[in-house]
Amino acid sequence: MSGKTVKRAVANWFRRDAVGWLMLLPSLLCFTIFIWQPLLSGIKTSFYETRGFDLLEFIGFDNYINIISDSGFINAVKNTWTYALWSIVLGLFTPVITAVILNEIFRGKAFFRFSVYFPCMVPSVVTSVMWLIMFEPSAGGFLNSIFAKFGAGPFEWLQDSKLVIPLIVSTMTWGGFGSTTILYLADLQSVNTELYEAVEIDGGGVFTKLTHITLPHMSGMVKMMFIMQIINVFQVFQQPLTMTGGGPNNASVTLAMVAYNYAFTTSEIGKSTATSVVTGLMIMIFTIFYMRIKNKNVNE
């Protein structure tokens, strides 16, 4: 191919796609400056000894070795998996059950949809502070006052190392399950009503409809939401930081909080970025599973 032909092809490509690239340019610049540049800079920093944000000396994988041998990091990994377990128990099934119930409601459906979604509109910090007040461990605390009328309590709530993670996950579920419920509800609208009518003709009841039509229809989305739930849990930071600060005795600390403490408490930026990289690799693994499941559902 001659030089003139190449130049002509490049000129034609530029004239054809120039407008599109110019429209994409602001987004590409923002993505590069605020996403890729910090990401690559963080990965580079994780291989260096640092003083504040200054890179002093390349030390290879020493930061990774140090954080993995740190009991605080190991404890955070265990806590994160505990968060994941409770998020599956509480956060995965709650929106499914709620969506199925809302799908069967004929009167006031718009009101109940808004009621379910409303907590998602409240900033998570506000939600955390609200529940923190409700979980006040003193005898005069909101929930303890209610339980006192039945002769129970007072309970320590967030001060109890065995209860703290389930309680935090329950507040996260309350604040976020509405959006997932709406997605499930939209998915249920696509179910062929003739299938339900066929079950009724055969003498089947609500349970038969649920187990043979509704739940099988929702299974694809439930699988995707399961993976998304795990991915989101590995990024939990705001709720435990606001409600417990990682306590009691680091019983609710997460990987994101470990990275935060390394960066802003002890000023060990290298360890902080190494923790973030390890967390990112874990999330990447689950993201790959998520994409495979998503592509499989699309192909089906």
Q: H/E order of the elements?
A: HEEHHHHHHHHHHH
Overall SS class: mainly alpha
Tally of DSSP helical segments: 12
The percent of residues in helical segments reads over 70%
Mean pLDDT: 84
Q: Tally of extended strands?
A: 2
Shape summary = flat
Strand order across the largest sheet: 1-2
Strand content: under 5%
Q: Indicate the low-confidence ranges by residue numbers.
A: none
Any idea what the radius of gyration is?
25 Å
Distance between the termini: 44 Å
Largest sheet, strands/sense/barrel: 2 strands, antiparallel
Provide a descriptive summary of the structure in words.
With about 300 residues, the protein is mostly helical. It is built from twelve helices and two strands; from the N terminus they run H-E-E-H-H-H-H-H-H-H-H-H-H-H. A hairpin with a 2-residue loop joins strand 1 and strand 2. It starts with a helix and ends with a helix. The protein has helices at about 5-45, 60-70, 70-105, 110-120, 125-135, 140-150, 165-190, 195-200, 205-235, 240-245, 255-265, 270-300; strands spanning about 50, 55-60. The protein is about 75% helix and about 5% strand. A two-stranded antiparallel ribbon has the order 1-2.
